[in-house]
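Sat 14:20. Reprocessing the chain from the morning session after the first attempt stalled halfway. Input below, unchanged.
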Amino acid sequence: MRDWLSHRVVSSPDDTALIRAEDGEAWTYTDLDRLVSETAGRLVAHGIEADDRLGVLTPPYVGTVGLVHAAMRIGATFVPLGQELTERELAERVERADLDAVVCAEPTEDAALGAVEGCAAESEPPVLSVDDPIAESVTAVHAVEPESIDPPAWETSDYLCILFTSGTTGDPKPVPLTAGNVYSSAVASAFRLGVHHEDRWLVSLSLHHMGGLAPVYRSALYGTTLVLREGFDPGGTADDIDTYDVTGISLVPTMLQRMLDRRGTLSDTLRVVLLGGAPAPNELLERCHDYSVPVFPTYGMTESASQIVTATPRQTRDRLGTVGRPIFGTDVTIVDEEGTPVDPGESGEIVVEGPTVTPGYIDGTDEVGEGGHRTAALDRSAFGPHGLHTGDVGRVDDEGFLYVLNRLDDRIVTGGENIEPGEVVDVFREFPAVEDAAVVGLDDDVWGERVSALLVVEGDQARDSVTSAAGATAAHGDESDDGADAGGSDAGETGDRDDDGEEIESESTDEAGSDENEPGENEPDENEPSEDDVSPPVDEERLVSFARDRLAGFKIPKTVAYVDEFPRTVSGTVDREAVREILRERGHDPRSDADLKTAGFEPAEPTEPGESGGSDELNEATDAVEAAEATEPTEAAEATVSDEPSTAERPSTDQTGSNESGEGEPTDGERGAEETGGDVDAGGATDGTDAGGTPDDTDADETEGGPDGT
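Finished this time. C-alpha cells:
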C-alpha cells in the first residue's frame, strides 16, 4: 500500500479534507494532495529519503498536517516534537530518536537550533524551516525546487511515526508505531465510535501527542474532514464545534470542563466526545448525560496508537467510572505481582496485547535488516506472556468493563498494607463540595508512607477559606499537630499554557501557608488572622466520617490540603510530585481525634501468646491522650488507633524496605519507579492527550445502540 492520502485522493478528490478553524479556509483532498506532493518533493531535494527519520517542531499549522503526509509519501518516519519542551529536553529526543533532519518554523527556530547543537552525536542533523530562516545555519524548505517522487510501498511493520512517552514517572522513551499499528487502531476505533461520510473531527490537541496525530491519519483513511485549531481556547473551541458542524472531538477532562463552564453545553452536531488523558470525574460525566453531551470515556496509550478500551454514553449511565470494554482485536488482562491473571473484580496491573501495540521501545543503535531497511534495537523488557505491561492498576468486572485506578508506582504501602490511590479518590469524589481528589503517599517515620490527599473544592471555597478567617474570633480546633495550615489557606493559583493547543498546565504558585515567627521577630498584628483562625473549606468532621463509612481506617488520609485546581503536566495529567510538594508545605491532619505525631501511635511490639495488654509505650501514649482530653478520651484513642494498620499484623520491614524506625526510608523522588507503560488516555496514566480518533462506520454490536446512547 502507498501512503494513505494518495489512495484517498483517487476515491474522494472533491471532498473536503481540511478546514482551518481560525478563518474557515478549506482544502479538498485534491488541494491537500497537491500541497503534500510539493512538500515531499522539496524534502527529497534536501536529501530526505525512505527510512529517514524526520523530526518536526512546528505549531499546529496546515503545513504541519502536510508534513505528516509528506513523510509517509517519501517513506520516512514522522517524529513530532513538542513546542513546550526545553532545548535540553528536545536535544535528548533528537538524539534518542536518531533523527536525520529537523523541520521547524519561525517561532520554533531557536529551539530547533539549540536542540541539534545540544546533541552529543558526532554530526548534527540539518535544520530546515517552513518559513524564511533567521539563522544562516537554517535552510528554507522552499529554497529548492521539488523533485519527482515514486511513492514507496508501505509494509505493516514499517515505522510510520515515533512518539515519546510523557516521562512523568521516568525518562521519556521513543515509541515506534508501525503502519499496521495505526491502521489497526483506526479500524477498531471505527467499529466502536462509528463513522459517517459527513463527519468532521476537530483537533485542538497538539500534533506531537497521539490524541492530536491519530485524527490526521484516520481522516485520510476514512475520507472525512479534519478541522484544525492552532491552539485550545475553551470558548473558541466550543464555538468552532457549532460553526463548522463538528461531529467529533478528542479532549482531556480539564478541557471539557472548561468548555462547559464557558458555554454551558456543546452543539448538538456532536456525535462523539472522546474523553481521555486522565480519569473523568463522575460529576462531569453526569453533567454531560444531563445536557446530552455524547461522552465516550476512553483509556489508551501512545504505545497502543491511542485507544485500548472505550465506553459508550449508554454504558456509562449505569457504570460511572468505567472506561469501557476493549476495542476490536485488543486483549486486556489484569495480572497480579507474579504476572498471573486475576479473577474478575480483583485489581492488578493492566496488560495489553493486540495489533495496535508497539513492537517495543527504541533502545540503542539502529540495525540494517532485510532489503537494507533500517530497524532499531528494541527494548521489550516491559512485555510478558500476556502482552505489554502498562504500569497501570485496574480491575475488570464480570461484564468485561475496565476500571482504571492508578499507576502501579503510585501504590501506597503503609504499615505493610497496600493501598490503591484510585480507590480512595473514588470515595472523596462522592463527597459534596469536593470536585476532585489526588491521593499520594508521603514519607512517614512510623508507617513507611502516609496516605495524603489534595482536594479540589467547589467554586471559590478554597480561596474563601483564606479570607474567611479575617473576622474569626475563635481558633479552629481541628488543626494539625505541627501547626500546619488547616484548610489550605494558600490555595494554589493556576495558569494555562496556550502555546500548544491542548496543553492545560497549571502550576501551584503559592508558598507554604504560614511560617512560625522566629524568636525575637515582631509579633503579628492582633487584627491579622493567624493560621489557627483559618477554617477549612469543607466540614472535615463530616469528611472523615464519610470516608470511615466507606474505607478501612488505614486508608483514610492523614494529611489533606485544598486547591482550586490541580498542578498538571503539559499533557494534562496531574503532576503528582507537585501534589506532594503542596501537601508537604501546607497539609494538615483532618482528623479531630488525631493527637499524636505523624500517622498514628508509635508501633507496639507484638505480644507473645498469653500475654495481656499492649506495650508500655502504647499504655503511656493512651494515658497521655486521656490526660490531654477531658471528653471521651477512650473513644478518641480508639478512633485514632482504628485509622492505622494493626501493629500486631504489621511486619517489621514493609514492602518499601524501611524498618520500624524509618531508617533507610526512600525519599518521595526515589520512590517513583521507572515507568513500564506510557502515555495513558484515561484512567490516571501519563499521556493524557492520547484520546485521538475520528469516528467510522458503526458496527451494530459495538455501538450499543448508537453513539448517543439511545
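Residues 462-526, 528-532, 595-642, 646-710 have pLDDT under 50 and may be disordered.
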